[in-house]
Design goal:
homodimer; 427 residues; Amidase signature (AS) enzymes; 11-stranded mixed beta sheet
Chain lengths: 427, 427
């Protein structure tokens, strides 16, 4: 058996329910890993070690048949938690103590999980970089905005964490950190109790080290039936989607995806070149307009009462957003509706679409969390997106393959991603 | 000049900016009205009289050109407020003090308004009746869930208040209380900082005593251009929409609408009998499914940690909702998407649709907040809906006429409603 902190969620749950591992031992192992690595990675915004050990002991004294009994989960610090401070990545909320748990945090607890701690979020889950470093190379960003959640899972501090995606804040950090990231269909999981960034786009996301783990947590939060990953026999046809912003991807990332597609074809899977219609070219810009307008209005209290506590980068972004018109915003909303109408027909006959999860490897330094252009159109299209770490770039850093299905076909996206992750050579 | 508390919002702003009325005098007048009537009406959950007078004095010492300078607004107690307790209509939140204002509360303050106090909401803005009474006849319900906001405006305690509509919680209480109620297009106004009931349906609503007043506040919150109500010359053609649940309306309400339509025709307005396609018959049930599923998941923390503090009525509702399947939920979501695609084409050629705002007069007693069946399909269709008090029932209580336009045609709905309210005989 691996040391406990290295176990997958499903492995940990199995050995715990089989009496071969105590919840306390799992929690202690994760705490030890944090103790060792946190000074380098900076994944955690809040972590109360003794409280978590007490909670684990309580779990051990009262074993249950709950599906997530004893599972250790990290929660991005833009989710409200009734027993932990919740900072939303901003000094404005240094003293914030929410009255209640976000809906999904409460769901996790209801099903037996231990909320381990709060992971670092960028400021208001927006673009300014956080302190978190990429476990694969600490000179590089882990991506954002779910920086701490992606890094904590990648570094074996926890098997599962939650993040949020508005533009590309789950799939991109999953890509950079070499973990599995899943952004379910918009609306599949409640966003209650998550600090609103852009209501038309905000989506709960899940990080894990396997698709099987991520599917388990997804199923609990969404109330859907099991996706039957094990029985799935692999895709017949995939749409290799280079657009709409393929030219913004690095050449090594492009090559890695092309090569991966050849390997798929060698396995007998049909991989068609797939072009989105020209109308989809506007979607990234439309997503940005929706994001900026909704963010601008959602943060009125912070802008008005605490402007000086907002970072200069975000201050500028708010000022630019203030110039957007309602006409631009509603045109963008309509583009999203139209794209969502068209997409299922375009993907008919394919098991899923595949593309890059990010434009390339994690950028060096800490001046950016990277480019979300490979993600934001899909955020607006409300599709399920899974990132699996099967590609790599010129520096040997991970790059994710993004698997996409039409809205509400989450089970299909998970099946395809799981099969590819298990059956294709990993990077 | 009317006594200050009876002034419309536009009148009050005009006399304040003209130096003919101080903000302090307006606030004092509203407080006096509350002092006199609150023991009968029970519209307020929280009201700090001395703090509001101090705030009014500060406004008077520092006159601004802000568009809402000195306007007094009541806020439903499911909106977060940084300086007032926020109870969400539930004893679970007796000690809740939010860290920030809801986005629209902050927007109102930014534009110079005074947040007067928090109005009574039903439990979690859901169906259990509140303590508030109908100013037109205190033996009757004011409707819900925005009970206090509707009653406070009807009773001249404040000129403007905010509520929320998920199924029918703005248009129905506006109808029962004889005031103007406006539910803008879904998504036009930020819901940040409002306690989530059902994310796919929750909408900010505005109560006032004229459409002009409501339009002013709407314009500030939505950033839209003025609707040009004064220049509007009246509708040419209206769709008299009896469906999809016309048979659930009381006969006196049906007759009142028929008679009103005749009066419109007598003024030369074309009023066509308009039938929604059969597919729209399912929308009320679909709305209820979406509401129940999203409510069930949003209130997981309350259900798990504080079930005993939830009313028996809502406990049962949660238990019923727990049996809904994801398939039923997503079928309902798809029905809404399809209805929203079809509606604009169906209404082409009409200035607006008209129907009843409620099934009849406010029910007597306090065992129900009334039936939302005339509202919930439009909530799912994301349309702007305006209720104007131009009808009445057999007991002489008000009944609203509901004016509806396609999503994002809010200006048209407001223009038609304003014209009808000003040009047709009031009840």
């Amino acid at each position: 058996m691996n040391v406990p902190n290295q176990l997958s969620a499903n492995e940990a749950l199995e050995v715990i329910s089989g009496g071969k591992l105590s919840v306390s031992a799992l929690v202690q192992s994760c705490l030890d890993r944090v103790e060792e690595r946190e000074p380098t990675i900076h994944a955690w915004q809040y972590l109360d070690k003794s409280a978590r050990l007490l909670e684990a002991q309580a779990c051990d004294s009262n074993p249950t048949k709950k599906i997530l009994h004893g599972l250790v989960v990290g929660i991005k610090d833009n989710y409200d938690t009734h027993n932990m401070p919740t900072r939303y990545g901003s000094p404005i909320y240094d003293k914030n103590r929410p009255a209640a748990d976000a809906a999904v945090v409460a769901q996790l607890r209801e099903h037996g999980a231990i909320i381990f701690g709060k992971t670092v979020s960028t400021e208001f889950a927006s673009s300014p970089p956080s302190v978190t470093r990429n476990p694969h190379n600490t000179g590089h960003t882990p991506g954002g905005s779910s920086s701490g959640s992606a890094a904590a899972v990648a570094d074996n501090m926890v098997p599962i964490s939650l993040g949020t995606q508005t533009l590309g804040s789950v799939i991109r950090p999953a890509s950079y950190c070499g973990v599995v990231g899943f952004k379910p269909s918009y609306g599949r999981i409640s966003c209650e109790g998550i600090k609103t960034l852009a209501e038309s786009l905000d989506t709960v996301g899940i990080f894990g080290r396997s698709v099987t783990d991520v599917e388990l947590v997804y199923r609990v939060l969404s109330k859907t039936a099991p996706a039957e990953l094990d029985g799935y026999e692999g895709p017949v046809a995939l749409a290799l989607c280079r657009g709409p912003d393929w030219d913004k991807a690095d050449s090594d990332a492009q090559s890695a995806l092309e090569k991966f597609s050849e390997q798929l074809r060698a396995k007998g899977i049909r991989v068609d070149d797939f072009r989105l219609p020209d109308s989809f070219k506007d979607l990234a810009a439309a997503t940005r307009i929706i994001h900026d307008m909704e963010m601008w209005r959602a943060f009125t209290d912070e802008r008005v009462r605490n402007f000086g506590l907002i970072s200069p980068e975000l201050q500028i972004r708010f000022e630019n957003a203030s110039r957007l018109t309602v006409e631009e915003y509603e045109d963008a909303i309509e583009k999203g509706i139209k794209g969502r109408q068209e997409l299922p027909g375009l993907l008919r006959g394919y098991d899923a679409a595949i593309t890059l999860s990010a434009t390339g490897e994690a950028p060096a330094g800490n001046t950016t969390t990277g480019n979300w252009i490979m993600n934001s159109p899909w955020s607006l299209l409300y599709t399920p997106c899974v990132s699996i770490p099967v590609l790599q770039g010129r520096l040997g850093l991970p790059i994710g393959l993004q698997v996409i299905a039409p809205r509400f076909d989450d089970a299909k996206a998970l099946c395809v991603a799981s099969w590819l992750h298990r059956n294709m050579n990993k990077r």
